[in-house]
Structures are given as C-alpha cells and as structure tokens.
Amino acid sequence: MVLPLCRCRVLYIGSSVPTITKDGLQGIQQPLRERYPVEDTPETRGIDSWLSVWSNGILLEYIEGDKKSETAFFPINTLHYCAAVRYVNVTGYAVEGGGERFLPLDSPFANIPDSPHPPIFAAIMRRTTGVKVLECHGFICTNNKAANALVRCCFHAYADSIYLKMDEKVPGLKAIKEGSTGERSPASPQSEENNSVEGDDHVDRAPKMT
Question: Where is the composition biased (Polar residues) (predicted)?
C-alpha cells in the first residue's frame, strides 16, 4: 500500500496572491497578514482539513462545510517556497524590520511561552489554471511537530522530483540507475514499509488510495 510522506490535521485559512515581489520568508509576510488574524486573542476561521504530502504533490482534503467531499491537489513541481512559522509581535526587540512578523519556528522569538498564536505551515505555489501566478496558502497546525513535518516532507518530495528530471535529461544517469542493484531507498514512499511521518494523534496515515 502506497502511503504519503506525512498527513496532518490542519485548519486551512485560504490563500492570497502576493502583491509585493519578494523571495523566501519575506514573500509570505503580506499574504499571511491578509489571511491570519493578528490580534492578541485571535479568532481564527478556516476549513477543518487533512493535508498530506505525497511524492508527486500536496493533497488537501476538506472534512467539514460545503466542500466536505472536495479535494485539492497541488503538483510538487508548482511549489515555490514553504515554511513553518508563527506570528510574533517583535516590537521593542532588536530584530531587523521590527514590528509584527511571521517568524520560523526555530527562531527564539517564535517560541515565546504561552503564545496564543499556533504554528502555521505556509506554502507558495504556482497556479496551474487561469493566470498562473504565485499564490500563498496558509494552514494552521496543531503543534510544531506537524508544521515542521510538512516542510520536511515537501523538501524531500521536491528534491526527488528534481532528481527524476535529471534522469530524463542526462542519459548517463539513467544508465547508471538501471545498472544498479535496484534496491529501493528506505525513505521512498513506494517502499512496502510504512515510512509515514507520524508523531502524535494529529499526524496521521493516509487511507489507501484507489
């Protein structure tokens, strides 16, 4: 049975098209401000969902509301950037830029005790239909472990897709691969072993796909 690299319960807060062209962490600041309430006691609204990372893309499964039976799939080659962040008000601290920002979970400022703000998995992906602009999607996670797992699995899936493209473009690499023992990497999502990331009740396995 083929399993995802990881599957996490999330609250999907929607997407926003960046109006300011910036790369990396700066590129998600403006879109997340539009989608996430930044008050001290935020009342977050979103769609209860499952988010899973597969070797070929990211699958969003709605489990409540009008879209309960709908899914959305984002091919891994449309991924532009992703990060696990938390909203932090760093006003008064000696932080470049200052003010209110979404900072990486490994930042000391993002680990302030008793913060009312949950971890967020943010992913910038390019639309595959219509005007193919970059679009930032926000997913509130139940804990840091889930948000970090999503980032880590997206990285591995994207890296694997690049290696596959290299195999197609460089005949020598394909020949070397065909001449190998054919043993599958333990980290491969096609392995018969269960290698899904599962840390707690909120990082789950995916059902069998037919």
Answer: 187-197
Q: How many helices (H) and strands (E) does the chain have?
A: 3, 8
Q: Which residues of the chain have pLDDT under 50?
A: 180-210
Residue ranges in the chain assigned as alpha helix (H): 26-35, 144-169, 171-178
What token pair was written down for 11?
A: 């609250």
Q: Which two tokens stand for residue 29?
A: 């600041």
Cβ contacts of 65 within 8 Å, gap of 6 or more: 47, 48
pTM, two decimals, is 0.75
Instruction: Enumerate domains of the chain plus CATH numbers.
Output: 6-178 (2.30.29.30)
Backbone angles phi, psi at 69, to 5 degrees: -95, 5
Amino acid at 77: N
